[in-house]
Design goal:
Length: 181
């Protein structure tokens, strides 16, 4: 199971439903929004893990955080702590609130969903992405080294780029497209 599948299938899709409901979106709207938001987060993760410090930071967050709880218990996504934690994750992944706003604005242009709503959804998507990475890390590679092609960077690439073409955008769009049918 890849990263996106882990998010979409968490508790029978309840995590996606709860995240959307928390910001007033339907399931289909949430899936559409996620198709625009997840590639930006994946790109930020890939960029961050290209350095030893970034990779170590992500590994520390995955092993030290409780991110998986949001997939295991989707009702937590409606609590203030999920938004707070998600905003912290966004700070690490994207670097600033300005970049988060740009991501929401670009996603709004491609989805037709209000940028204000997407700004509210983005922290929840970030918590789900980290939850799925944490879940995959514990299931696939509990003893994976922190660096190198066999480590977390390799795992991250394989989880995000299922067809191995070097781009996660087409993989995310394809999987979400199947969910919308």
């Amino acid at each position: 199971m890849n990263l996106l599948d882990a998010i979409l299938n968490a508790q029978g899709g309840a995590a996606v439903q709860q995240a959307g409901a928390s910001v007033g979106l339907s399931r289909d709207q949430t899936l559409t929004a996620m198709s625009a938001l997840i590639p930006a987060l994946a790109g930020g993760l890939q960029q961050n893990t290209s350095t030893a410090d970034g990779l170590a930071g992500l590994l520390g967050a995955l092993t030290g955080g409780q991110h998986q709880q949001y997939l295991d218990n989707p009702s937590l996504l409606s609590q203030a702590a999920a938004f707070t934690e998600g905003n912290g994750i966004l700070g690490h992944i994207l670097g600033s609130k300005d970049v988060s706003r740009q991501v929401a604005t670009q996603a709004s242009a491609s989805t037709g969903i209000s940028a204000d709503v997407l700004k509210k959804l983005l922290p929840l998507v970030a918590t789900m992405v980290m939850g799925a990475l944490s879940q995959q890390r514990s299931q696939i590679a509990p003893q994976a080294p922190a660096a190198g092609s066999g480590g977390l960077a390799g795992m991250l690439g394989s989880l995000l780029d299922s067809n191995r073409d070097g781009s996660v955008v087409d993989d995310v769009a394809s999987m979400l497209g199947r969910m919308l049918r």
